[in-house]
Each structure stands twice: as C-alpha cells, then as structure tokens.
Amino acid sequence: MALFCNFSNSQLHYRSLSSRYCSFSKSPNFSKKISVSSSSFSLSSLSISNQNEDINNKDDITESNVSKKKNKLSEQSSWEAKDSEGKDYLYRLGKEADNMNIAVGARAGVIDDVFAGNFLGRDSDIVFDYRQKVTRSFEYLQGDYYIAPVFMDKVVCHIVKNCIAHLLNTKVPLILGIWGGKGQGKSFQTELIFQVMGVEPVIMSAGELESERAGEPGKLIRERYRIASQVVQNQGKMSCLMINDIDAGLGRFGNTQMTVNNQIVVGTLMNLSDNPTRVSIGQEWRESDVTNRIPLIVTGNDFSTIYAPLIRDGRMEKFYWQPNLEDILNIVHRMYEKDGISRDEVVSIVNTFPNQALDFYGALRSRTYDRSILKWIDDIGGIENLGNGLLKRRKDEKLPVFTLPKQTLEALFESGYSLQKEQKLMMETKLSKEYMKNIDD
C-alpha cells in the first residue's frame, strides 16, 4: 500500500502500477487492493488528461498567434497603423476622400461602413454633405422685413415662368439679371423673396469665377446647376442658381485681361440658356440624363461691362432696381421699428441725408452701437484682458450682459453726419495725386 502511494504521482511508476493492477485483478485475494488502486488510477488519469488539455490549449494559442502574424501585412504597415484615436489608415482614407460623384450612392452592406457612414441610416448619399454646404437656407433672417412689390413681382414671375416653361408657347429667358446702384439691397431683397417662397437656392460668388486651373469655374457652374436640379428632384423643393456681383468676375474694366476661364464661364452660361435640360459635367451623354430646368438669377452694378451676347434679351431678362422714396421709407422704417423710431422720424432722417443708398441707413444705425460696445469692453476687464475675457473664459463663466443702446433721433443724426463727412473726405482727398505731384495729369 505504501509502495503504491509513493509512486502514484510518477508517470514512470504509473505504467508499472497499471500493469500490476492488471495482474492483481486476476486474483480474488487482492480485492481490497484493487479498489484502492482503481481510485488512485482514476485520479492519476484525470491529472494526465488535464495536462493534455493544457498542452492542447497552448498549441491552439500558438497556432492563433501564428495565424495573426500571417494575416498581418508587416510590422511597419501603414494600412494597419493606428492613430491617436485608435483609427486605422483605411478610416482616415475614407474620411478624407473628396468623392463628389452625384450619380452614385453609398449603400450599407455593399461597401465598407466606414465609407457609408450612419448619419442617414442604412443608406447614405455621398453628395449629401456637399449639397448641404452649397444650398442656402435663411433661418438667420429673423424679424419683419419689407419687400418692395415691384422687386417681388419680378423675381417670383421669373422663377414661376421657368418652372412652367414647358407649358408656355413662348421663349422664356433662363437668366434674370438684377442690376443697379451700389448698396440698394439687390441680394438681400432676393433672399427675402426666397424665404417667403420656400426656395432653397444655390448661391455663388463672383470670386468663384476664376481659378488657377483652366475650365474649373465653368465646370463648377455646371455642377452647381445639377445640384440645384437634384434639390428639385429629390427634395421636392423649388431651387435656383444665383450668382452675386457677376460683373465683378466677368466684366471688363479698363485694360483688364480676358482669361480662358472668363471665356469658358461666359460660354457655359450661354449654353445653359440655350440647353437648360442637357447639362454635362464630363460624363457620357445618355438619353435619360435630363436635368430639371433651373432658373438663374445674377446681380451686378453694371451689365454693360459683360460680353454682349450673354446679356441679349433671349437669354437674360434685365431688371434695373432703383428704389423710389416710398420703398426707401418703408425699408428703413422696418429697420428702425424695433428701436422705437416712428415713421415721421424716419422721414426726417431720409430727408436730412438724401440721395444715399440703403446700406447708408444700416451703417448709420450700426455706428450708434459703438459707445455701448466700448462700455461693454470696460465691463469685461478692459482692452488688456479682452482676449482672456472673450476666448479663454470657463465654460460656466458667462459674459457680462450687453445693454442695447437706446436709439434717439439725435444719436442717429450724429452718426449720419459722421458718415457723410467721411464720404466727402474720401471723394475730395486723392492721396495718389498727393504722392505723385511731379507727374502731370
């Protein structure tokens, strides 16, 4: 019994004991020995099976590590490298991709979710974010503004005529050119009309009509035109393409140079006017590729500087905007109404400063805020602590309350005289002649 117990933990003697157990089992005199040895034998076999499982588990872990090493491209692979946020290179590639192809979409399950995104649910539109940046909404226009009836009739009629052009048995110009003096509210009045009508326009600037790449501005206009068409088709909203201050980008002033991009932009606008439903951005022509007719609205100060065939009557309907006295009084009164200025006081202001553009009366009101702003700067710690007070304050720290100035007729007159003096000084003082007295006129 002692001999058996001493060697029960040894694999070497386990084999001899197992053979002895077999021999003992044949003899009836060792039944008690057999019972003990059988229990010991079962314990030793359990320990051996546990050891075998440990060895198998170690082999599985080793094999998994080997498989991982085999799947990994290399120790220095940039495709599997992680950034500070734990994102790999493919995530960065998908996030920074500038795919503006409006003909395709990202469908969940077809391409990687990294590229599809989840902000639209199962399916996402690749151009959605781009379209939201291009189209303009007018939630910021809060308040009650005055829209001149003549201006409104012209813009509304142009948009509706182009929307039902297929029903009319007449030639409908695609472009409405609104031109007139500086600061008369051409763009602002148009935006107010868009807000009233529920139009979601694509608005461009004259600064986008030139590029270091030849043909880029013309392609941009065609892309924006097609995006406005997508707004009509996919969102069920009215849309249009608006280009502000077009004469600043296409007009010829003095000896300014005509560039290839200027020619392509003019040619693009002329082609849109002649073929408003067939617009290509470089893809192959297809019979089913029919674009919605999108009205164009352009603003400017002097259309006589633009290439004449573009502004001919068949392509562009021209509207000269010069507000009359009644329009000016109504617009300025709505501007000052929230300040408690009566209509009679507005009449006295307009009569005191006649022949001024509408933006003059807006600047006049803005200048009355200067003293209140200077006082507010002193309240937050003065000029020396201005940066800390405005930008480096704590999240729970609030700025001092800005008290709006009380508008009075005397304060408005004071601001108006100051602006008028600066205008006169600007026109009379020509420093270029002062600097070059030795050059004859």
From TrEMBL:
Pfam families for the chain: AAA, RuBisCO_activase_AAA_helical
GO cellular component annotations of the record: chloroplast stroma
ATP-binding keyword on record: yes
Chief location of this protein within or outside the cell: plastid
One function term, GO molecular function aspect: ATP binding
Keywords recorded for this protein, A-Z: ATP-binding, Chloroplast, Nucleotide-binding, Plastid
Location in the cell: Plastid, Chloroplast stroma
Residues of the ATPase AAA-type core domain: 178-322
Sequence ranges assigned to domain Ribulose bisphosphate carboxylase/oxygenase activase AAA helical in this UniProt record: 326-423
Assigned protein family: Belongs to the RuBisCO activase family.
Entry function: Activation of RuBisCO (ribulose-1,5-bisphosphate carboxylase/oxygenase; EC 4.1.1.39) involves the ATP-dependent carboxylation of the epsilon-amino group of lysine leading to a carbamate structure.
Protein name in the entry: Ribulose bisphosphate carboxylase/oxygenase activase, chloroplastic
